[in-house]
Amino acid sequence: MNAHYKVLILGAGTGGISVAARLAKKLSPTDLAIIDPAQKHYYQPLWTLSGAGVVPKQESERNQIDFIPPGVDWIQEGVARLIPQANEVETDSGKKITYDFMIVALGLRLAWEKIPGAKESLGKNGVCTIYEYDQVDKTEEMLRSFSGGTAVFTMPPVPIKCAGAPQKIMYLADEIFRNNGVRNQSKLFFATAGKAIFGVPVFAEALTKVVQRKKIDLLTQYQLISIDGLNKKAVFRVTEASGQASDQELKYDLIHVVPPMTAPTVVSESELAEKEGDQKGWLSVDKFTLQHKLFPNVFGIGDVTGVPNSKTGAAIRKQAPVVVENLLSAMTQKPIAAHYDGYSSCPLVTEVGKVILAEFGYDGKLLPSFPVNPAKERRSMWFLKRYLLPKLYWYGMLRGLL
Ligand SMILES: Cc1cc2nc3c(=O)[nH]c(=O)nc-3n(C[C@H](O)[C@H](O)[C@H](O)COP(=O)(O)OP(=O)(O)OC[C@H]3O[C@@H](n4cnc5c(N)ncnc54)[C@H](O)[C@@H]3O)c2cc1C
Question: Of all atoms in ligand 1, which is nearest to the CA of residue 14?
Fold first, then answer.
């Protein structure tokens, strides 16, 4: 480990490795370092399928070391403090590292503490989640052993990562319950803090038809605020059309919980965070160039960025070339010209073998990759999600080829 690097990358998840792989082809790898204590790298999109028993969760896990580009230093520590005024970061053990340029790719934080009772109930009392790797098996077990009753699937306020996942697991659960002959004795609810089932109207319309077909009750502006695991009760803050809010209790037999999400504390408490508005706490970057608004030698990628997109790995696939091009321009005093259009994609699994591939950019602009009606459930898109995308991830994106 050196005390100074030309480019320091914080986080070795989807975003960090994607940019490291690209930069290692353009710069001398020894000028680069990645800081991340995690020994494992996860392809998180598979957790939805693993939670329903379609794919073993181990398929989503690899050793981090296999994806650090050769020659790049991997500092296996956490980042404890960001000091951008001094072009410096401090690690958990108190080491100080300086940089010429920095890319922040620290992902996001699951804010379990915002739902009292949830974290301690996970894996028991009918409470499950696919948002934690170590809860994925337990989720499958709970869905398979469900013997009927009330099953609730929650969706917190956005932004969250993969805003489609909270309902994908519900559709797969519905299928498991049907196959096990318990669906007729069950009531399913999708309780979302949002005003609609999905943020982009054309997909919201298609998904509303899916929940109607599956006889799932859609509860909008229902925000989960606490769980009483022992008594299997959940409290929701319900906002009426008039704007009036009240708290309502719902008894459940099974509840799939998605927690609210925030930027990692090290970012939200730093000078790099957005100070006001919708993106408060997230990394303050220009939504097109992904360059920091105050510190031009800092760029951001992925879930940590305070941009009004939908946080997904698919978004990162489009952000990585933009960040790398703009960073190289900044290094050579050229204009910052590459633009990210807000692209994100969510393969909305509506049952095993069927997917609506939602692709859109800023302001909900449709950005389909294929010349077909994007709001239709398709078998071809299932093959893309289940088989092709994981391969493209491990062998393309993380190698800087896609
Ligand atoms: C259930 C689920 C389903 C999903 N489905 C899809 C999908 O279908 N399609 C899709 O495109 N996306 C999907 N996603 C979202 C996608 O996985 C994420 O958007 C993407 O992985 C974000 O990448 P990132 O690099 O921003 O963060 P991450 O990949 O989470 O990486 C962040 C890294 O930062 C490290 N880190 C954190 N704090 C520190 C610190 N203080 N110091 C050092 N390192 C630190 C972590 O160890 C981690 O390695 C899904 C996610 C989930 C959970």
Answer: 25
Q: Ligand 1 pocket, 11 CB below 6 A?
A: yes
Residue 255: which of 229, 221, 222, 225 has the closest Cα? 229
DSSP 8-state assignment for residue 388 = I
- Spatial neighbors of 103 by CB under 8 A, at least 6 apart, are 7, 8, 9, 10, 15, 16, 19, 298, 299, 300, 301, 323, 327
CATH architecture of 111-261: 3-Layer(bba) Sandwich (3.50)
Question: What is the distance between the alpha carbons of residues 356 and 380, in angstroms, rounded to a whole number?
Answer: 10
Query: Is any atom of ligand 1 closer than 6 Å to the C-beta of 45?
Result: yes
Q: Where are the domains of the chain?
A: 4-108+263-343+394-399, 111-261
Diameter of the chain by CA atoms?
66
Which pLDDT does position 184 carry in this prediction? 98
CB 22 within 8 A of CB 400: yes
Which parts of the chain sit beneath pLDDT 70? Answer: none
The predicted structure's pLDDT at residue 169? 98
Distance CA 237, CA 226 (A): 9
pLDDT in tens, 27-78: 999 999 999 999 999 999 999 999 999 999 999 999 999 999 999 999 999 9
Ligand 1 atom showing the smallest separation from residue 78 Cα: 42
Mutate to test the pocket of ligand 1, among 74, 161, 381, 387 (most ligand atoms within 8 A of CB): 161
Do 10 and 89 touch, CB atoms closer than 8 A? yes
**10 Å Cβ neighbour count for 59?**
12
Q: Nearest 10 degrees: CA dihedral of 204, 397, 22, 324? A: 0
Nearest alpha carbon to residue 156 among 123, 191, 187, 128: 191
In CATH terms, the fold of domain 4-108+263-343+394-399 is: FAD/NAD(P)-binding domain (3.50.50)
Fold agreement (4-108+263-343+394-399, 111-261): yes
